[in-house]
Amino acid sequence: MTTGKPFQEVELPEQKPQDDHVLFPTVLSPNTSTNSTATELTAFEEAIKAHKPWLESLLLKSGAILFRGFPVVSPSDFNCVVEAFGFPELSYMGGAAPRTQVVGRVYTANESRLDKEIPFHHEMAYLPDPPTKLFFFCDEEPGMGGETPIVLSHIIYEKMKDKHPDFVAKMEEHGLMYTNIAGDNDDSSSHTGRSWKSVYKTDDKNIAEERAAKQGTKLKWMDNGVKIISSPLPAIRIEEESGRKTWFNSLASGYCGPATEKTGNHNTSVEVGNGDPVSDDVVKDLLKVLKEECVAIPWKKGDVLLVNNLMVLHSRRPLVKPPRRILVSLCK
Question: Looking at residue 325, what is its pLDDT?
Fold first, then answer.
């Protein structure tokens, strides 16, 4: 569809129509029928700035936008794109995923083993102030596999409410409480393997406790690390614009039990905010619904994916054939 803007909406076979016939995610490419085709990086940046309100409304409507075919070839280019949007940067304080700053506001995505799956989650849902938007950038196109599936959170809420109304009601009332064991050193084998020193950017336990307390988190020290225990956090949220309830939590990635034998983490656990355990049957159904409803578009070099973290869950499929390098940027 031609918009009269430097962008045009294109369709890919993996997209899914929503109830209002909006495709998820929206896919934008350069509009070659206009004078400004955004085929140079500076032109792309200017196009973003000039049409930011429209792009934001599109993001709110669809939940995610994939920019494909634009001249973003390096981490520095990606940083320029992030800066062009002008969203405030989120400090990665308290984050459990191992990642490293690359340039500016750009970081590596989760540095855990690429042949391992990362279950669906809202980024940093285990903290009271998670990012509202995420940028992903394909720096090296995967040889095979390694997709970043995404799924609309309100759909998961509706499906799970139909299957497990009592449990969902309990989640709405009490929220969820997350526990993560962080060692003294980073563990690249785990997708939540950041050490407590990396999580809190200090090797001083007192400072770590102060920074954890500011996030409503308790630390219980062990011989070789610490248990990071969150306060009960909302597991169901309401989209301000639409009024729809969303499945805003990291239950699928935080739970450790039979249902997550292949994807689960030995160093994480999750329970209902009142202390009740989570049923394995609930998680089994959740994983099935997430798999059925998600969209997984294979990465292409230069892709930039903008995700509304309040509306959309994401995951990572195992890499079958290297290479793969995806970079990220987190926004308030």
Answer: 98
Note the pLDDT tens digit of each residue in 66-100.
999 999 999 999 999 999 999 999 988 999 888 99
- Third-level CATH fold of 153-291: Double-stranded beta-helix (3.60.130)
Q: Is 22 helix (H, G, I), strand (E, B) or coil?
A: coil
Distance CA 183, CA 226 (A): 6
Asked if 7-116+124-151+297-331 and 153-291 have one fold, the answer is: yes
Show the beta-strand stretches assigned E in 105-233: 106-108, 118-121, 133-140, 144-145, 150-152, 176-183, 217-222, 225-230
Per domain, the residue ranges of the chain are: 7-116+124-151+297-331, 153-291
Which SS3 state, helix, strand or coil, does residue 3 take?
Answer: coil
Contact 235, 102 (CB under 8 A): no
Compute the distance between CA of residue 119 and CA of residue 259 in angstroms, rounded to an integer: 12
Rg (CA), the chain: 20
Fold of 7-116+124-151+297-331: Double-stranded beta-helix (3.60.130)
Q: What is the pTM of this model?
A: 0.95
Longest dimension (CA), the chain: 64
Alpha carbon 175 to chain centroid, angstroms: 19
SS3 assignment, position 239: coil
Q: Is the pLDDT of residue 54 over 60?
A: yes
pLDDT digit string, tens, across residues 12-49: 999 999 978 899 999 999 998 765 556 799 999 999 99
pLDDT at 1: 47
pLDDT tens, residue by residue, 166-202: 999 999 999 999 999 999 999 888 888 899 999 999 9
Alpha helices (H) along the chain = 41-50, 52-62, 75-85, 153-163, 165-174, 196-200, 205-214, 251-254, 280-293
